[in-house]
Specification:
Length: about 450
């Protein structure tokens, strides 16, 4: 996308200003988004974006800018403005580019640049809507969305790196709304991955509609949730959002390097119950949060964060490695050319254990089964969180009694890690978008069903 000789000229100019490191991140992205309301198409939107991110590093100081132009004079002008307050004699000599193409671990076939497949996507969403509304006359409305993105990147840096990559994302979602004339409740189901629209061969619109409707109907019949400290069983898949938000961000060198994480000095220590082993894995084939290389050009990897309760690694980007001394983990990510990279999660999850679901439930005298988790708020640095339970059930005398609504789970990441005593076998992942200092990036969360022995539950009963 950018001529090699031009990139060499621009990066050499950055080093002539006294920078210790210079980088160009070139991106061209195609997007397509379809939204539906019940059995009507609301919008079909497509777009193209192109730009170049310019990064200069002076010691521990990072300077960043971007442009939509490819002219060398424009890129040099940006470098000059970025470095205006830090100019000094050159210290580094540019290394010759050594092009390396990453191995493609995530093949995609029905990609956006070949065909947007609008009719096929609309048909999928219409079939999901029909399935949801056929399940009950209480389903009053659905909202559907299908989004696809094709991102092509090229990276040059002063250490001689020259590489390219292509990422193809697709995700389809249906939200169902149930109403009995007095109250409303919602349910949602989503599928996605790092591949093309061939995902339609793997997903079933009837399952999507049925599951979204089932959740909505359960929530419509739910009673107010009791409150207080109690044990909670958290469901698999998106239940892993608690670990991602309340613990995962505290393991990124973005916060560790600033000592803004409670785990910054805990390497090698027991930070969780020994039942907990956690991983951030960017290599899982065609998973939503996977990548071939990170946005600094490093090959991704499987990073063991916690093993049997002991902290074994952080998530480390290039700057984080310089600041902390830990080795890079291929975790430098950014939303687009408009952002400098930072250490970020990929597919982050608690690994499966050996506990049985029935044993978890039967071990509880009074508690909650949080089958589906929703969004919440997290306090950076401490991991204090407040998460909504979107599908929950009251447990009494070792048995699930009835569905509950308006439940929240309140704790801190460090505290909840030590309260996890049982981890099940039913591991699964779920798609999400993670926002941080380098924008919003696709990430997966996950876990098997697990038991937290003690946590504060907020409710209205």
């Amino acid at each position: 996308m950018l001529q090699v000789t031009k990139a060499e000229d621009v990066i050499d100019h950055g080093l002539s200003l006294g920078a210790d490191f210079a980088e160009l991140f070139v991106e061209r992205s195609l997007t397509n988004a379809i939204s539906t309301l019940s059995n009507q198409v609301q919008s079909v939107e497509s777009g193209i974006d192109f730009g170049i991110g310019v990064r200069l590093v002076f010691g521990s100081k990072v300077l960043y800018g971007y442009t939509n132009k490819t002219e060398a004079d424009e890129l040099k002008r940006i470098m000059g403005e970025l470095a205006a307050m830090d100019l000094r004699d050159p210290r580094i000599v540019i290394q010759a580019f050594d092009y390396s193409a990453p191995i493609e671990h995530h093949p995609a076939h029905r990609i956006l640049s070949a065909d947007a497949d609008v009719d096929s996507k609309v048909a999928y969403l219409m079939a999901a809507d029909a399935a949801a509304r056929a399940s009950s006359n209480l389903i009053s409305q659905t909202r559907g969305a299908c989004r696809q993105k094709e991102q092509r990147i090229e990276i040059f840096n002063s250490e001689g790196l020259h590489t390219t990559d292509a990422r193809n994302y697709v995700r389809a979602t249906l939200t169902a709304i149930a109403s009995d004339g007095q109250e409303q409740a919602t349910g949602m189901w989503s599928d996605g991955g790092l591949l093309g629209w061939e995902i339609k061969e793997q997903v079933d619109p009837k399952k999507t509609g049925d599951e979204a409707a089932r959740q909505a109907l359960v929530n419509l019949s739910a009673k107010a949730c009791p409150s207080g400290r109690m044990p909670v069983v958290i469901g698999n898949g998106f239940g892993g959002v608690i670990f991602h938000e309340a613990c995962g961000h505290l393991l990124e060198t973005t916060s560790v390097a600033k000592k803004a994480s409670v785990f910054h000095d805990k390497m090698g220590e027991m930070i969780a119950n020994e039942a907990v082993s956690a991983v951030d894995d960017g290599t899982m084939v065609n998973e939503w949060g996977s990548i071939n290389i990170d946005d600094e050009g490093m090959q991704t990897q499987n990073t063991q964060l916690i093993k049997d309760g002991r902290l074994t690694s952080f998530l480390v980007d290039r700057l984080g490695a310089e600041q902390t001394g830990f080795e890079r983990t291929g975790s430098g990510r950014r939303e687009s050319y408009k952002y400098a990279p930072a250490s970020r999660m990929r597919n982050t999850f608690i690994e499966a254990g050996n506990a049985e679901f029935d044993d978890m439930i039967s071990s509880i005298d009074r508690g909650i089964y949080a089958a589906q988790m929703g969004g919440g708020s997290v306090q950076p640095g401490t991991g204090e969180f407040n998460f909504a339970v979107t599908e929950g059930y009251y447990i009494e005398n070792g048995k699930i009694q009835y569905p509950v609504k308006a439940a929240t789970l309140i704790s801190t990441g460090p505290a909840v890690l030590k309260e996890i005593s049982m981890v099940g076998k039913d591991f699964s992942l779920a798609c999400g978008m993670c926002g941080s200092v380098s924008g919003a990036v696709p990430t997966s969360v996950g876990q098997a069903t697990l038991k937290v022995d003690d946590i504060l539950v907020g409710g209205q009963a």
